[in-house]
UniProtKB/TrEMBL annotation:
GO MF assignments: DNA binding; DNA-directed RNA polymerase activity; ribonucleoside binding
TM spans (from-to): none
Protein name per Swiss-Prot or TrEMBL: DNA-directed RNA polymerase
Top-level taxonomy: Eukaryota, Metazoa, Spiralia, Lophotrochozoa, Platyhelminthes
GO cellular component, one term: DNA-directed RNA polymerase complex
Amino acid sequence: MLELLGSKAATLDGRLRDGSAFSGDPVETLSKTLVDHGHNYLGKELLYSGVTGEPLEAYIYFGPIFYQRLKHMVVDKQLKSSTKVSHHIFSTVIKLPTISRID
């Protein structure tokens, strides 16, 4: 939550911000930056319907945030299985010879 508030403030004033919880910028400083640029001090946004143009009944808390993909995906681990391959037609497990194993 603090990272999102910091990244939103950073995009508005163009300064680098620290979004960590322990040594980052204080919430008051980030909120003041948002208010100075005409936004809600908590970072909430009022969205409007794309169909009717009316405002939605809830405030939405969104903004740019860092996302890191998990490196060890299940599909990768399944493809690296070195001894057995499942055959979808027969629903059986086929044992591969050592030479043709997928590494």
